[in-house]
Design goal:
207 residues; alpha+beta; Trna Endonuclease, Chain: A, domain 1; 2 domains; five-stranded mixed beta sheet; four-stranded antiparallel beta sheet; binds zinc ion
Length: 207
């Protein structure tokens, strides 16, 4: 639920006692609102950053530069009374502006560490299922993210959304048994990032 609903109405939150107890949804950051309004990124649904341009206009763009590059950037301005959001990138349909009042959102840290990798895990799961595989998410707690099974072959996949191949390699070296056969998946938007990897194999690849 955190992954697919990074922002919600306060009234909706009240219906989920366990989420209220966790205290993970809080008021929308002042950096991600303008004139009392916010808008969700079309990709991750989280509140976009607002960069004011004077008092009557602001740029709204996703904190994830990969999303902003793919078109999650808009311009907010006053026109004939109400506020409008116009496309400033490849996505030509702007999301609806929503009032800050009455909405709560996940923190930056939760968005970065739970929402972004979580979206990629869900996407991988759906793609593998379309290809006829069986998929379990987080089968053994946190040891890895997806277990994909097809015709007797098993793939253990870990999804990474942060660009630290060095750190991942070091962790694998520290615990070679723990990552034997582990597949590490990265967003392919890193393809143009120098020094980043796309998929790396530790141990023997199945099939
Ligand atoms: Zn986004």
């Amino acid at each position: 639920m955190l992954v697919t609903t990074p922002v919600m109405a306060r009234r909706a939150l009240a219906r989920h006692a366990y989420l209220v107890d966790l205290g993970v949804y809080t008021a929308i950051s002042p950096m991600q609102q303008f004139a009392g309004w916010w808008a969700p990124c079309p990709f991750c649904k989280w509140t976009m950053r607002a960069v004011p341009k004077g008092r009557h206009a602001a740029d709204l763009l996703c904190e994830d530069l990969r999303h902003a590059k793919r078109g999650a950037r808009f311009e907010m301005s006053l026109r004939d009374g109400p506020w409008w959001l116009d496309p400033a990138g490849a996505i030509r349909t702007a999301p609806e502006l929503r009032p800050v009042e009455g909405h709560v959102a996940l923190s930056y840290g939760l968005w970065q560490w739970i929402v972004l990798p979580g979206l990629l895990e869900i996407e991988l799961k759906e793609r593998a299922e379309e290809a006829g595989a069986n998929v379990r998410l987080g089968p053994y707690g946190d040891s890895y993210d997806l277990q994909i099974t097809k015709r007797g072959a098993v793939w253990r996949v870990d999804v990474k959304t942060w660009a630290d191949p060095q750190g991942i390699a070091e962790r694998m070296r520290e615990d070679p048994d723990g990552c034997s056969g582990l597949i590490v998946a990265f967003p392919n938007t890193w393809a143009d990032t120098p020094g980043s990897l796309r998929v790396c194999w530790a141990g023997t690849a199945p099939g």
